[in-house]
Design brief:
single chain; mainly alpha; 4 helices; 2 strands
């Protein structure tokens, strides 16, 4: 008799827990609908005027040594005529360019 009562109480507790969980989960979508989607703002940098520290900070996959190589290339050959010219810099390939295309501008 005691085992049956314990089993019945555990079943009731479990059902109560499931009910609370179901109610909680149905309330979540209403909160999500009330807020506007968050869009990450991308910082853009002028490839023809930024210093190495700025390039290293803003560009993905570019550390200070690659950023210095970009500035050195720009000093030696003049301003970049196109973003695609960035791949002429040693250590900067198409992959890095594509990851950063939306972060770079030419002025």
């Amino acid at each position: 008799m005691m085992n049956r009562m314990l089993s019945l109480n555990l079943s009731r507790a479990f059902m109560a827990l499931l009910t609370v969980a179901a109610i909680s989960l149905t309330a979540l979508p209403s909160f999500a609908q009330d807020s506007e989607p968050q869009v990450a703002e991308v910082t853009q940098v002028d490839l023809n005027s930024a210093d190495a520290e700025t390039l290293a900070t803003v560009m993905k996959g570019v550390g200070i040594s690659k950023a210095r190589a970009i500035v050195s290339y720009r000093t030696q050959y003049g301003p970049f005529a196109s973003l695609d010219e960035l791949t002429e810099v040693k250590g900067i390939g198409v992959s890095i360019l594509e990851r950063n295309r939306d972060r770079l501008v030419l002025r």
